[in-house]
Amino acid sequence: MQRDTLVFDLIRKELERQRRGIELIASENFTSLQVMQAMGNVMTNKYAEGYPGRRYYGGCEIVDQTEQLAIDRLKQIFNIEYANVQPHSGAQANASLMLAILQPGDAILGLDLSMGGHLTHGSPVNFSGKLYQPHSYGVTREEGIIDYTMLEAKAREVKPKLIICGASAYSRDIDYKRIRAVADEVGAFVLADIAHPAGLIAKGLLSSPFDHCHFVTSTTHKTLRGPRGGVIMMGKDFENPFGLKDPKGNIRMMSSLIDLAVFPGTQGGPLEHVIAAKAIAFGEILTDEFTAYAKQVQSNAQAMAKAFVNRGYQIISGGTDNHLMLIDLRNKNISGKKAEQVLGIADITANKNMVPYDDKSAFVTSGIRFGVAAVTTRGMKEEHMEFVVNAIDTSLMNADDANLLAKVKKDVNDFMSQFVLYPEMG
Ligand SMILES: *Cc1c(COP(=O)(O)O)cnc(C)c1O
């Protein structure tokens, strides 16, 4: 077969784009070279429906070992009893978990999408809002912190089967204990979706959901810095208290019900090449190097937040506990949409985002979200946040000055050349 230079040239261009820009999309990161290499391996050729030791295909004795390694390492990272590493993505992990514990039409309660929640927590355009009956809680108008009083009142009112916490654009730690207390009162399960802060939770830098939440889902590619994918975890396995049955009518342990909901419930063959890359990433997370990385992420986020506040920017909730922050741009007279466009011209990548109680549409928005997981992987420290925030501020305050934006872009490109990305790739 002739080498497809058309596609490989585009891949090369994407590498150059990643190298020269400042990546501030809060959900992105740069995997290690070995994690990326593992994704392009012969295990992509293998069908392995089922789980290690109980597959529906022959020839699984090697992929059984990589998958088991991924499971064992993930359990070690969070000190937990159960992990399923097969979900293809974070959304798939949530779909599987909900399939395992809910019936169509059951009420669920999650953080509103426009307040920082995720599509899979009950948005009407998502399976979670179509198959189940979605209800939502928000954040307080004054402080931008989760409105726990509202959450409790909603839970008592709608009696959900599942309360979902965790978010995509929320910069504060979460009071899992308080959420569990009301869940117990109304007979609901609690799911913590830690897709964003998982890498910080792994190192004890944020409170752990495992003591209080029945289930925890995550992506593996955000602060965990692994390949694109998802996982489902439980601190402790348990017999299901509501007598949920498997498709054959047997009452089973929760771990079995979740395994069945991933496969055959929502997925077919697992991506064993990606699972091999997950195993490598989880091994990296267990090192002291990753501990230093996670701490640096948190310090960089705080330094960045401070630099924004010093320039008069309004951060929702006033600051950050994790790797990200959401900025309300209304006092700066620029929309999230325009801000995203302008920063793009300067080779700074970020995404527009609704802010709580936003008066603009989801296409325009009043906010922008910044995360530092990716730039921290590039090697940035606290002292570099000043340059980054200055470049952002200069761009936003001169949004229609093409010459100035061209100069910021050049400065950004020069600045980034000191943080070499994938030097092995030439
Ligand atoms: C990113 C994210 C997901 C979805 O992950 P995908 O891999 O994009 O499907 C789910 N939940 C939350 C809270 C997220 O931030």
Outline the secondary-structure elements.
Layout: H1 5-20, E1 22-23, H2 33-39, E2 50-51, E3 54-55, H3 61-78, E4 82-84, H4 90-101, E5 107-111, H5 127-131, E6 133-137, H6 148-158, E7 162-165, H7 176-186, E8 189-193, H8 198-202, E9 215-219, E10 230-234, H9 254-266, H10 272-285, H11 288-310, E11 314-315, E12 324-328, H12 336-345, E13 348-349, E14 351-353, E15 367-371, H13 373-378, H14 385-397, H15 402-416
Parallel strand pairs: 1-13, 5-6, 5-7, 7-8, 8-9
Antiparallel strand pairs: 2-3, 4-10, 9-10, 11-12, 12-15, 14-15
Bound molecules: pyridoxal-5'-phosphate (PLP).
Provide the descriptors you would attach to this structure in a database record.
Aspartate Aminotransferase, domain 1; 426 residues; seven-stranded mixed β-sheet; Aspartate Aminotransferase, domain 2; 2 domains; binds pyridoxal-5'-phosphate
CATH architectural name of the largest domain: 3-Layer(aba) Sandwich
Total domains: 2
Bound molecules: pyridoxal-5'-phosphate
Instruction: Give the DSSP E fraction (strand runs of 2 or more residues).
Output: 5-15%
Number of strands: 15
Give the structural class.
Answer: alpha/beta
Radius of gyration, in Å, reads: 22 Å
Question: Uncertain segments of ≥5 residues (pLDDT<50)?
Answer: none
Mean residue pLDDT: 97
What top-tier CATH class of the largest domain fits best?
Alpha Beta
Number of helices: 15
- Percent of residues in helices comes to 40-55%
Biggest sheet: strand arrangement: 4-10-9-8-7-5-6
Shape: globular
